[in-house]
Amino acid sequence: HLPTAELQALDAAHHMHPFTTNDDLTAKGVRVIARAKGVYLTDTDGNEILDAMAGLWCVNLGYGRPEMGQVAARQMNELPYYNTFFQTTHVPGIALAKELADLAPGDLNHVFFAGSGSEANDTNLRMVRTYWAELGKPEKSHVISRKNAYHGSSMGSGSLGGMTYIHEQGGMPIPGIHHIGQPDWWSEGGDMTREDFGLARARELEEKILELGAENVAAFIGEPVQGAGGVIIPPSTYWPEIQRICRKHDVLLIADEVICGFGRTGNWFGAQTFDIIPDIMTVAKGLSSGYAPIGASIVNDKVAKVINACEFSHGYTYSGHPVCAAVALENLRIMHEENMLDHIRNVAAPALQNALSALEDHPLVGETARSGMMASIALTPHKESRAAFASPKGDVGYMCREHCFANNLVMRHVGDRMVISPPLVITPEEIEVFATRARKALDATYADLKDKD
Ligand code: PLP
Questions:
Q1: Which pLDDT score, from 0 to 100, does residue 316 have?
Q2: What pLDDT score was predicted for residue 367?
Q3: From the CA of 434, how far away is ligand 1's center (Å)?
Q4: Average pLDDT estimate for 398-413
Q5: Which pLDDT tens digit goes with each residue over 291-329?
Q6: CATH number at residue 272
Q7: What does the pLDDT read at residue 26?
Q8: What is the pLDDT at residue 149?
Q9: Which domain holds residue 405?
Q10: Do 57 and 97 fall within a single domain?
């Protein structure tokens, strides 16, 4: 391939990147990733970078699994495409729907496929509104979500999300979507205990339902652990109370499992980790370990009965794409074969916990938090008071992220919280490499801050 500098120049000239400014591409130079194996990326300069984010929280199996490519090639040769509209279907679509129905908790037995998490959440929005309209309650159409949630980038899913800087572009949220507080005890819990704060934040849902009128509220959507919002692990009191409130007011509960699904929190789904049974789950990312673009809404019997009885005028050309479905099936087969949940619970998560605990003595680290294999490190100038930095929010996190890059580590920042979501296959030895590089990045960030003082 061309030399890195030429690739960077071509990229800056022609390639529009999501969530990136031109400055990021030209002044700092974009990293060109050439190949990857296991948990390591290799860039065009030959640097080996430990990917503690599994791409965008998705490459759960790790990179370069030959079986995945073989299955994709076989399916491309056999049936590269057919749609699932009207009265047609195909074997990979059927098999994947059955597998997901088997894995999902409760009576979530029905699967509507999409090409991504955004598309699946758009499906959910239309599906819950259609559900109530079909039951003769078209006014039961409002959906409640949370501040700082991320549910995707399309108009519907972006509106469900609660990030104001996203809403500011393009006229979001669309009407009928409301956002309540997130269960972020570290930043917002003040003097309350975690448990009391969890209950208080859950009860904001009830307040919002009563304000809107339960007869007007179709659904509540939340990520079991808010991912892009900063790996916000809710207090144990939060989700059971949310479930109780939804049931009491006949509001459908949607768990967005796009990050939490498929082992990330130590169970197949985050709903199981937090002991709830939603009506609908959104899945994507880890469904195929990011090897093929696929998402889905997994729906319970009650909702499916109504939706299947009407003509739900919704679907995507690539709903249940046979190659993506075959790749997802292979991903799940490997997860079973390699006892991935056992690896997470008994090997990877304890090793990650040790690494995080060891970092807690660092002067910049306020707390570390972890659910299964998703974790975060809160940076603070003052541990005891959980204070925020005086500099604009996110500056220190950004500095730390850059120092991670310089130390060949991908760790993302959300504000001043570093977030971690490595491939689930990561070994204790690789977690040690992560910890050494993370400490170097923290030290360099600390030194920069001291220089500024
Ligand atoms: N939901 C959650 C919880 C996500 O984290 C994301 C993406 O990061 C999405 C939905 C959107 O998924 P996609 O990027 O596949 O559209």
A1: 97
A2: 94
A3: 25
A4: 96
A5: 999 999 999 999 999 999 999 999 999 999 999 999 999
A6: 3.40.640.10
A7: 72
A8: 98
A9: 31-64+339-452
A10: no
How do residues 101-131 score in pLDDT, each as one tens digit? 999 999 999 999 999 999 999 999 999 999 9
The Å distance, Cα 452 to ligand 1 centre, comes to: 37
> Which tens digit of pLDDT belongs to each residue from 357-381?
999 999 999 999 999 999 999 999 9
Same domain? 351 vs 323: no
154 and 238, same structural domain?
yes
Residue 297 lies in a domain: yes
314, 337, 360 - which closes a domain? 337
Per-residue model confidence as pLDDT tens digits over 65-86: 999 999 999 999 999 999 999 9
Kindly report the CATH number assigned to the domain that includes residue 381: 3.90.1150.10
Is the sign of the CA dihedral 413, 352, 286, 101 positive or negative? negative
Which atom from ligand 1 is nearest to the alpha carbon of 119? 16
Looking at the fold, whether 44 and 191 belong to one and the same domain comes out as no
pLDDT of residue 22: 79
Ligand 1, CB within 6 Å, residue ranges: 56, 116-118, 121, 150-152, 223, 227-228, 256, 258-259, 284, 295
Domain shared by 129 and 231, yes or no: yes
Q: Among candidates 356, 433, 450, 358, which has minimal Cα distance to 399?
A: 450
The residue among 303, 337, 371 that closes a domain is 337
Q: Is residue 317 in a domain?
A: yes
Instruction: Collect contacts of 399-404 with beta carbons under 8 A, ≥24 apart.
Output: 399/445, 399/448, 399/449, 400/364, 400/441, 400/442, 400/445, 403/440, 403/441, 403/442, 403/444, 403/445, 403/448, 404/437, 404/438, 404/441
Nearest CA, atom 12, ligand 1: 117
Show the tokens assigned to 271.
Answer: 């709903």
Sheet with 217-222: list strands edge to edge: 108-114, 295-300, 280-283, 252-256, 217-222, 142-146, 177-180
Rounded to the nearest angstrom, the distance between the alpha carbon of 117 and the centre of ligand 1 is 5
pTM over 0.95, yes/no? yes
Angle between helices 428-452 and 349-359 (to 10 degrees): 20
Residue 285 alpha carbon, nearest atom of ligand 1: 15
pLDDT for residue 238 is more than 70: yes
What does each C-alpha distance from 375 to 89, 259, 436 come to in angstroms? Answer: 39, 12, 16
The count of domains in the chain is 2
